[in-house]
Specification:
4-stranded mixed sheet, globular, DCC_oxidoreductase, DCC1-like
Length: 135
């Protein structure tokens, strides 16, 4: 399989919290370096399988230049791609131990459906936006 996007975020496609997060990330990545696909999509499943990773809807994966980051590492790596003050979240990784960052990530991930439930609608995208959402 040929992956033409260098930086792909794999998320839970049925989660409202994840959907809002993806919308936030898209809106704050005006350089358009990020692409998105759900873990449940054909591409998402193929990327996970290619990298010997399980489908884990409590985990965000970030495929960047042939390497896969997960959980807090993914969050911090994605932050580097964002605009403005959001970029500074990437520096937190230098001062917060990985175990603590992943522990915090896991607490939020396990409660994400309680925060916003499951989604029942999707963002209506323009033609320009559609190219960044991979199937």
């Amino acid at each position: 399989m040929s992956i033409y996007a260098e930086k792909i975020i794999l998320f839970d496609g049925d989660c409202s919290f994840c959907d809002r997060t993806v919308n936030f990330l898209f809106d704050h990545n005006t350089k358009r370096t990020l692409y998105f696909t759900s873990q449940q999509s054909v591409l998402g499943k193929a990327l996970l399988e290619k990298n010997n990773l399980p489908t884990d809807l409590n985990t965000i994966y970030f495929y960047a230049n042939g390497k896969v980051y997960q959980k807090a590492d993914a969050f911090f790596s994605i932050a580097k791609e964002l605009d403005g003050i959001c970029t500074y979240f990437s520096y937190v990784q230098r001062i917060v131990p990985k175990k603590l960052a992943d522990w915090c990530y896991d607490r939020i991930a396990k409660r994400r459906h309680l925060l916003l439930g499951k989604k029942d609608s999707c963002r209506l995208m323009t033609k320009e936006e559609q190219q960044y959402f991979l199937l």
